[in-house]
C-alpha cells in the first residue's frame, strides 16, 4: 500500500474554544486538558455574547476570555474581522466551536479555515441549523445523535469527522433529548479534538480524517 500523504494540519495543541451557551462541551474539554497526555490545552475562550455560563466556567478555570458581540459592530463583516483578530491573538492550532451560534464570514474562514471544528446535536446532514434537536423530534425520528465536523462556509455542511447515535425515547421533549445528546456529544468532541491534536487533521473533498 502506498504511504499516506502527510496530514494537512497537525495541531500542536493550542485550542481556542468558542461558545454561546451553557458550556458543557467547554467543561468537558477543560477536564480533558488537565491530562498532559491529552495533547491539547484550552488557551482562550471567545464568546459572541456576555452573561453566559460558559464564560463563568472559563473564568473559574483561569482561562482568558473575550466577548465579541455582533451588536457592537456596524455590520457582520466588521464583526467577522474583529472576531478574527481576537482569536488570532491566542495563536490557535485548532478553533473548537462548542455551542457557538454564529456563522463566520470570509475573513475568519480565510484565516482559520481547515482548522475549525464544530459540534452539532443531530446526525448531519439531517437537521442542520440552530434547532437540530427540536427538528429531529418534530420529524419523528427514532434515532438521532451528534456530529463533529470541519467547518466550511455553509450551515453545518462541512466534512464530517465523527458521529454518535442517541435513541429517541417515547416521552422525550427537546430538553430531555438534548441533555442525553449532550452527554454523548461531550465525549465525542473531547475524543476527536484530542485525536486531531495528536494525529493531525486531513480533509479530502467531503471526507475528513485524522492521522
Ligand atoms: C450543544 O448541543 C451544541 O451542539 C449545540 O448547543 C449545545 C451547546 O451546549 N449547538 P453547551 O453550551 O456546550 O452546554
Topology, please?
Elements: E1 14-19, H1 24-33, E2 41-47, H2 53-60, E3 65-67, H3 76-88, E4 94-97, H4 106-112, E5 116-120, H5 132-139, E6 143-150, E7 160-167, H6 174-199, E8 201-204, E9 207-210
Parallel strand pairs: 1-2, 1-4, 2-3, 4-5
Antiparallel strand pairs: 5-6, 6-7, 8-9
Helix pairs in contact: 1-6, 3-4
Organism: Cellulomonas fengjieae
Site (Raises pKa of active site His): 156
GO molecular function: phosphoribosylglycinamide formyltransferase activity
Question: Which key phrases capture this entry?
Answer:
211 residues; 23% strand; binds 5-O-phosphono-beta-D-ribofuranosylamine; EC 2.1.2.2; two-stranded antiparallel sheet; 9 strands; alpha/beta
What about the largest sheet?
7 strands, mixed
What's the number of helices? 6
Molecules bound to protein: 5-O-phosphono-beta-D-ribofuranosylamine
**Outline, from the CA principal axes?**
globular
Tell me the helix content: 25-40%
Radius of gyration: 17 Å
The separation of the N and C termini measures 16 Å
How big a fraction of the residues is strand? Answer: 15-25%
Average pLDDT taken over every residue: 94
Strand order of the largest sheet: 3-2-1-4-5-6-7
Question: Strand tally, please?
Answer: 9
Structural class: alpha/beta
| Helix-strand string | EHEHEHEHEHEEHEE
Low-confidence stretches: 1-11
Active site: 120
Binding site for (6R)-10-formyltetrahydrofolate: 76, 118
GO molecular function: phosphoribosylglycinamide formyltransferase activity
Function: Catalyzes the transfer of a formyl group from 10-formyltetrahydrofolate to 5-phospho-ribosyl-glycinamide (GAR), producing 5-phospho-ribosyl-N-formylglycinamide (FGAR) and tetrahydrofolate.
Amino acid at each position: 500500500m502506498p504511504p499516506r500523504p502527510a496530514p494537512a494540519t497537525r495541531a500542536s495543541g493550542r485550542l481556542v474554544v468558542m461558545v454561546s451557551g451553557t458550556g458543557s462541551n467547554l467543561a468537558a474539554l477543560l477536564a480533558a486538558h488537565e491530562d498532559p497526555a491529552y495533547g491539547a490545552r484550552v488557551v482562550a475562550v471567545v464568546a459572541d455574547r456576555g452573561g453566559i455560563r460558559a464564560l463563568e466556567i472559563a473564568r473559574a478555570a483561569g482561562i482568558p476570555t473575550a466577548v465579541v458581540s455582533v451588536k457592537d459592530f456596524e455590520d457582520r463583516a466588521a464583526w467577522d474581522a474583529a472576531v478574527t483578530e481576537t482569536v488570532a491573538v491566542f495563536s490557535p492550532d485548532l478553533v473548537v466551536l462548542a455551542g457557538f451560534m454564529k456563522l463566520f464570514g470570509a475573513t475568519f474562514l480565510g484565516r482559520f479555515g481547515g482548522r475549525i471544528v464544530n459540534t452539532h446535536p443531530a446526525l448531519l446532514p439531517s437537521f442542520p441549523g440552530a434547532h437540530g434537536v427540536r427538528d429531529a423530534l418534530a420529524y419523528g425520528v427514532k434515532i438521532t445523535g451528534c456530529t463533529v465536523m470541519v467547518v466550511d462556509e455553509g450551515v453545518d455542511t462541512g466534512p464530517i469527522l465523527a458521529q454518535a447515535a442517541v435513541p429517541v425515547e417515547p416521552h422525550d421533549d427537546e430538553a430531555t433529548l438534548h441533555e442525553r445528546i449532550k452527554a454523548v456529544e461531550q465525549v465525542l468532541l473531547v475524543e476527536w479534538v484530542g485525536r486531531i491534536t495528536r494525529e493531525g487533521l486531513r480533509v479530502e473533498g467531503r471526507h475528513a480524517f485524522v492521522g
